Structure formats: C-alpha cells, structure tokens
Amino acid sequence: MTSTQQRNELTIDGRRISYLDFGPATGRPLLALHGHISEGAAFAGLAAQLGDEWRVIAPDQRGHGDSDRAADYSRQGYIDDLVALLAHLGLDSTVALGHSLGGINAYQLAAQHPRLVSAIINIEGPAALPEGPSGLSFVAGFPYTAPTREELIAATGPVGPMIATSLRPTPDGGWRLPFHPQDTIDSETLVHGDHWADWTGSTCPALFIHGTKSQVITTELAQQMTERRPHTTTVQLDGDHFAHAQDPEGFAAAVTAFLAAL
Asked: How far, in Å, CA of 45 to CA of 179, rounded?
C-alpha cells in the first residue's frame, strides 16, 4: 500500500510545531506520537500499511525533528501542543497512538480530553516510571551540531547509525541532531512518576503493545496495565522497548486488527 505525505506546520505561542500528514483528508484520523530521540517520520511505514482508509497525523513533538525547541518539557506542555494541533486540523476525535513518551502523551490526552480520543494504541508507554536520573543521560555527551554529517554521526557513537537519516542541515552549512541533548534529558526526567490515574482515567478501547524483552516495562507491569484498565487488550512483540521498529510487520498487523475492530 502507499500513502501520500505532506509536511505542514502551525505556530503555538511563537513556536513552530511541524507535522507530517499521511493519507487523504477524508481518511479516519490517527494521531501518531513518537518517543524521545525520534520524530513523526518514524510512522511512515505504518501509514503506508494502513493506506487511504486512515489519515495518519505524525507531529514532530516539541524539541524534536523540524519542530522548535520549547522553554519547558512538562507533561502538560506536550498535551497542550496536541490539543492545539487537533484544533488546528479541525478534528474533534482521533485514535491516539504513541511509543514510549508518545504512548504516555496519548493516554494522558485521553484522560484529560476524553472527547478528543476515541481509542488508544500505547506502545511501551509505562503507567509508572521510578523517580531518578534520566535513562537517556548518555546523550549529554553528544554535540548538538557538527561541521559535517559524518562527524555528527561519529560523535554520537552507537546511536549514530540509528539517527543518521534524521539529521538536519543548519543555515551555516553544518548539521544538527533532530533533538537537543539537554532538552532530551529534561524531557525524559519529567516523564518519570506515577501515571496510573491517567492510564486508567479513560474508558475508550485501548491496545497495549509490549516488547517481550523490554528494558522499560517488566512483564509484571505489563500484566497490571492490562488488568487494571477496562477495555484494554495486549499484544506482545518479540523485541525490546523498540519492538514496533524491530518487528514492523507484527506491529502493523496488531494495529490493523485493533483498528478494524473499532
């Protein structure tokens, strides 16, 4: 299957939010939210699999991709951006899908604005994360910019090949990361905490996708998340926290089946 792709943007309080819009305007809307050190383009493959029946809207969330950096990365800040984006698009209801950071944002959006979210697809977004140092503190040593693309890839070590296609050119002829290292640490730190009230705070259908080798969500927590929230089903993929990228066919099949049942 194929899907058209357009990049558009809106301005919120003088700050640009860039988003990809896949599929026809007549398609059923699906808001797709990436995790940290990622971007909206991560869901291009899923959009292609879903075809013209679905309109996949995949923003580069604040501080990521082509969207501007923000003054803060609070939980509420992310949710306010999503509400503004849906209003900008004239959408009064959407399926909210997200990975990790994006998964938490999706279910918090549903809890705060239940009329805006008809269903949730949560990929490895935990209902609780222990307080403590950021799990992404390793990015602190990354340079934000470099004179050449090759230098930037080399400076980011094992992460380099993963983000190579996401690097952005700068006006001075150099290259930059699709995220700012300190912003990422600040944002990930603010994701930590107990979010059970938000995870169980909506009643719409939900699909929870768990990687069997996840470094973030234990099997016990995955079971609790399924049992404690009504109208929730779980699909396990053979992979870690990024199982949706490691098994794109299994991921697309799980999402397609869930959407078909709505």
From this structure: 21
